[in-house]
Amino acid sequence: MVHRSTFQEILPRFLEFAGNDILAGHNIQSFDMKFLYRDCERFFQQTLTNDYVDTLKLGRLCYPNLRHHRLGDMAELYGISTEGAHRALSDCRMNQQVFERLAKELGKIGGGKTATKLCPNCGQPLMKRNGRYGEFWGCTGFPGCRYTENI
Asked: How far is CA 91 from CA 2, 63, 94, 98, in A?
């Protein structure tokens, strides 16, 4: 009989692997992080403190007029192979390549700067916005995240 590991058994290995690195995923904010936050508390009474970047949010930011922003759609947009889609390793590789292309797009949006300022609350990119009192940094996770910062 084959032993199938439980999430409680796998989670410590994942946390050790991730260390303090920034996590990246497609729809990670609405899906993966909820499980990670819940189960870190539930099984180990600890809070997951890793920052994360959601490529779904980045895709919507870079391509607001695109009809769909699914990982496969984003990969096809960039000419990235979708072979093996919905298999863990294939999706990880696809997401990495999509993330790299989106980072280049964000560099163009930010005036050619390659560094992107991230929200300290939710990890999404901050974007320069104009408000009543002038320019400010606003979280692209709005309205879910309302973080702002003076320029």
From this structure: 25, 20, 5, 10
Residue 38 tokens, joined: 């819940």
Task: Write down the catalytic residue from 3, 68, 69, 86.
Answer: 86
What is the C-alpha separation between 130 and 133, in angstroms, rounded? 8
> Could you read off the pLDDT of 40-54 as tens digits, one per residue?
999 999 888 888 889
Q: Residue 101: what pLDDT?
A: 92
Please indicate, yes or no, whether residues 107 and 125 belong to a single structural domain of this protein.
no
pTM of this structure: 0.69
Range of the domain at 54: 8-13+21-113
Catalytic residue check, 68: no
Distance of CA 140 to the CA centre of its chain: 12
Give the Cα separation of 148 and 151 in Å (integer).
10
